[in-house]
Amino acid sequence: MPAIDASDLTKRYGDTLAVDGLSLSVPEGTVYGFLGSNGAGKTTTMRMLTGLSKPTAGTAAVGGAVVTDRAALRPRIGYMPEEPPLYDQATAFEQLEYVGGLRGIDAETARARGEELFEALGLDVGPADRIDDFSKGMRQKVAYAQTVLHDPAVVFLDEPTSGLDPRAARTLRDRIRRLADEGTTVFLSTHILPVVEEAADAVGILYEGSLVAEGSPDELVARAEAGEGGTLEDAFLDVTSSDPTQSGRSDEATENGNGPREESTLDV
Ligand SMILES: Nc1ncnc2c1ncn2[C@@H]1O[C@H](COP(=O)(O)OP(=O)(O)OP(=O)(O)O)[C@@H](O)[C@H]1O
Question: Spans of biased composition, class Polar residues (predicted)?
Answer without folding.
Answer: 239-248
